[in-house]
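thought: fold this chain, then report.
action: predict
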Amino acid sequence: MNAIDLAWAAGLFEGEGAIKIDRSGHNQCRLMAAVGMTDLEVLSFFHLRWGGSLSAQRVRPECRPQWRWAVVSRMARSFLTDIEPYLRSARVRQKAALALQFQAQKRPGRGSASELVAYRERQWAFWEVMHGLNLRGIKEAVA
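observation:
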């Protein structure tokens, strides 16, 4: 993919997208990146290049159809790695960096009980920081 496409995707994602560490089953977490909007053609660009899911969202009958593209785990890491050099806002750059650190610490397989507890604690620590970053934008907008 060329630099123009990556810069465009980064800018659109900065304005309309979200990065989060989602709580999944078994007291573990997973990385997620998503964009929601009414323009299916734009989201198809993301879906064709980075995979993930593209789904219709429930909206009121008088509203235009809404769509959501999302990637998780390794696919989210790949997407964020591709667009990271083109991100401009400090907060989104901080969230992307945290997301990539989170995904880098994921481990395959199982370990001892104490290793598993430490792993879960690390995941929850990442979740708490990302949760705070995501809340901060809301508090600043209201203040």
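thought: worth noting. The chain is about 55% helix and 20% strand.
final: tokens above.
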